[in-house]
């Protein structure tokens, strides 16, 4: 899964936590419960679950773009 760039729009995030549940090696939740990409994991860290996490987001706050 090389060649991708992940971003999470924290202004759109509602803190549902689906990203962290689906791909915990790439996403986490901050102290306020909002999703965020783990530092250094913006490339998806080879996880096949990143796209599934983006689909699971109820407000489409996650973008997975090809580099």
Automatic annotation (TrEMBL):
One matching Pfam family: Fer4_15
Metal-binding found in the keyword field: yes
Gene encoding the protein: suaB
The name this protein goes by in its record: Ferredoxin
Keywords in alphabetical order: 3Fe-4S, Electron transport, Iron, Iron-sulfur, Metal-binding, Transport
Secretion signal span: none
Functional note: Ferredoxins are iron-sulfur proteins that transfer electrons in a wide variety of metabolic reactions.
Domain of life: Bacteria
GO molecular function: 3 iron, 4 sulfur cluster binding; electron transfer activity; iron ion binding
Cofactor: [3Fe-4S] cluster
């Amino acid at each position: 899964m090389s060649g991708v760039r992940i971003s999470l729009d924290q202004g759109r995030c509602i803190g549902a936590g689906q990203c962290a549940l689906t791909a915990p090696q790439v996403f986490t939740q901050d102290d306020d419960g909002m999703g965020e990409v783990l530092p250094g994991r913006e490339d998806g860290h080879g996880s096949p679950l990143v796209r599934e996490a983006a689909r699971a987001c109820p407000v489409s706050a996650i973008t997975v773009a090809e580099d």
